[in-house]
Design brief:
By secondary structure, the chain is mainly alpha-helical. The protein is built from 13 helices and seven strands. Among the domains are: about 50-105, no CATH class; about 115-235, Arc Repressor Mutant, subunit A. The relative contact order is 0.04.
Length: about 350
């Protein structure tokens, strides 16, 4: 039998268990302290200054008035009440003081043009890297092209000569890390890189980069002319290495023959990178001296018909084929047969 005190104690324990097992009570017990902590933090945090807007460009009050430097636009009104947009620049002068000036249209256009130059150099560097990787992966096969140059002409819309120059430069930049970094950072133009890849190597690229500083592409082309791969800017130029320019205008059928000859030479050498110089030199040597590219003596067949006056005399003429080493030897043989 329970007394009143024991009954009250039992009811109190049941109530505590019911509260402890009630999920809503547990959620309320967890949420309330978190709200209080958040409120305390919010009260302790100072209010941030309101931003100021210049033509939809938002700046912080603290930075726009003291530390911020750069270009922004400001809408102003003239004496007649017409509004116009001015471009301002905040900068620090030589004395360390913050100043504000208005930029005219010519200055803005020049800055945009210089930005295009840097962006173009970075894009050329990225394209050179991807072209080299695509060449290694034989990406042209995915489009059904016979060669990578055909892929560059049909898919990338490059002219034949430009496609070969682009691929040559991209393959050369693989072994020129300093030049590749300068091109990717916009510090070097692609026209300079195109000429330097003809002579610079991994050991000489720093010397060449220092020699062409503050020079335009025409000066760089003149410095490269007459020097071979691996030469330094201080090495003397050789006249036999200076290229001569020759432009050809070919009809479509002759151009098709030119491409077929290039493909045949590439298959023969086991490499698709056959330059115009290599193809033209091979064609000329094989035309003048069939059978070899080094120029062996040509084999000529000569038939001699003796006349009635010389029928009884023996004429020293080759029976079937004579090996002629020079035009002078051929002329001497003709003279002996005439006598």
């Amino acid at each position: 039998m329970l007394v009143d005190g024991d009954r009250d104690l039992r009811d109190k324990n049941r109530c505590e268990k019911r509260v402890a097992c009630d999920p809503s009570a547990l959620v309320e017990a967890r949420v309330v302290p978190a709200r209080e902590i958040a409120n305390r933090r919010r009260e302790a945090t100072p209010e941030r200054p309101k931003p100021r807007v210049y033509n939809n460009i938002m700046f912080d009050e603290r930075t726009i008035d003291s530390e911020w430097t750069g270009v922004y636009e400001l809408t102003v009104a003239d004496e007649d009440g017409y509004e116009r947009v001015e471009t301002h620049e905040r900068f620090v002068n030589g004395g360390g003081e913050l100043r504000d000036r208005v930029l005219n249209e010519a200055t803005l256009i020049e800055r945009r043009l210089l930005g295009y130059v840097i962006a173009r150099s970075k894009l050329d560097a990225a394209e050179a890297f991807d072209l080299s990787r695509a060449y290694d992966l034989k990406l042209h096969r995915l489009r059904g092209c016979a060669s990578f140059f055909e892929y560059m002409e049909r898919v990338l819309h490059y002219a034949p000569h430009t496609a070969r120059e682009r691929l040559r430069v991209s393959r050369a930049l693989v072994g020129l890390p300093v030049m590749s970094a300068a091109l990717s950072q916009g510090e070097l133009a692609y026209s300079h890189v195109r000429e330097l890849t003809r002579v610079a190597t991994c050991d000489t690229e720093r010397v060449w980069l220092g020699a062409i500083e503050h020079r335009n592409s025409t000066d760089v082309q003149a410095m490269v002319a007459g020097r071979a791969l691996g030469d330094l800017p201080t090495d003397p130029q050789r006249r036999d290495l200076k290229p001569k320019r020759m432009a050809l205008e070919l009809p479509p059928d002759v151009m098709a023959l030119w491409r077929e000859a290039r493909k045949a030479l590439a298959d023969e050498r086991g490499s698709s990178d056959v330059t115009d110089v290599a193809l033209l030199e091979t064609l000329c040597r094989r035309f003048l001296n069939p059978g070899s590219e080094e120029g062996p003596p040509q084999r000529l067949a000569i038939w001699s018909v003796p006349s009635a006056a010389t029928a009884s005399r023996s004429v020293p003429v080759a029976s079937s084929m004579s090996r002629i080493t020079s035009w002078s030897a051929l002329a001497a043989m003709r003279g002996s047969s005439a006598t």
